[in-house]
Amino acid sequence: MGTQPNEPMPNYGDGYPPPPEPQSTDGRTLGLAGLILGIIALVLFWIPLLNFVSLVLALVGLGLSIASLVIVRRRAAAQGLSIAAVIVSAVALIAAILATLFWSSLFNSVDQVIEEPLPTVTVTPPAVPTVTPSSIPPVGPTTTPTTGPTPRSSAAPNPAILPLGTEAEVGDYAVAVSSVQLDATDAILGFNEFNQPPEGQYVLVTLDVVYNGTEEGDPWLDLNPKFVGSDNRQYDQASCLLDLQGSSLPTLENGGAAQYEVCMDVPAAALPGKRILIENTVDFSGTDEASWETE
CATH no. for residue 186? Predict the structure, then answer.
């Protein structure tokens, strides 16, 4: 017999089981999204600049994963995905934070090194006495042996100081100091905004060179100009950007000529100076050099 139209519906409280509740997939969807974001954040966290994107992705992924874990807390079958998403997103978030701190510290250190002016290093080569045939004592029983190195005060004098514009041989080069500008600070600072203020003041020296060697010559590397101050100290080239060729000088062959400028950071107390010294850096004997007036 079928159920009559007016027959009452069964009472589920009287022994009949309630119908099963439909399972929501929202928790698994959130957990899967959090897991994917966490994995992407783990891939990107170590790349500079992209580590900020990784930080945001990991933070969003962790939020979705926690929300998923709250939703599926009563369903053991779905908790595994949510827990894995929480772990991956948390690890990615920590890694992104550490990578951000590392890259920020590294970039700050590089900026400080770039902004700091290069120090002026003064290298004074040891004095090497000049030996001439007349200074060699005769060999015989009356020769008195020397007891030590010859003091600087009694050593052979420096070569004659040449007037500006006079040519001299230095190594494989014919060199002339054309001009010396003792106070070139304003000109050098005004030429390039990246030039740093000197500790003393900039001295600008103009050189004319002709290469007489048989191979190839690079005067910027082969010649070492120095300013010998009134304080008896030598001042090397400073790190200022100049107008003429400078370090971009072309390689010279036999007979090739070039003009370039160098600058030195010299204390005011060392001016007007004693001489401009040009040394040949290829010759380490200390004898291949020439000197010019400073004004």
Answer: 2.60.40.1240
pTM for the whole structure = 0.46
Q: In this structure, is residue 197 part of a structural domain?
A: yes
Q: Are 96 and 185 found together in one domain?
A: no
What is the Cα–Cα distance from 277 to 292, expressed in whole angstroms?
Answer: 7
Q: For residue 18, tell me if it sits in a domain.
A: no
273: domain range? 160-292
Helix (H, G, I), strand (E, B) or coil at 131: coil
Q: Is 176:165 a contact under the CB 8 Å cutoff?
A: yes
Phi and psi of 108, rounded to 5°?
-65, -40
Helix (H, G, I), strand (E, B) or coil at 192: coil
SS3 276: strand
Q: For residue 72, how far is the Cα from the chain centroid?
A: 54
The pLDDT tens digits of the residues spanning 223-270 come to: 899 999 999 999 998 767 775 444 567 889 999 999 988 899 999 899
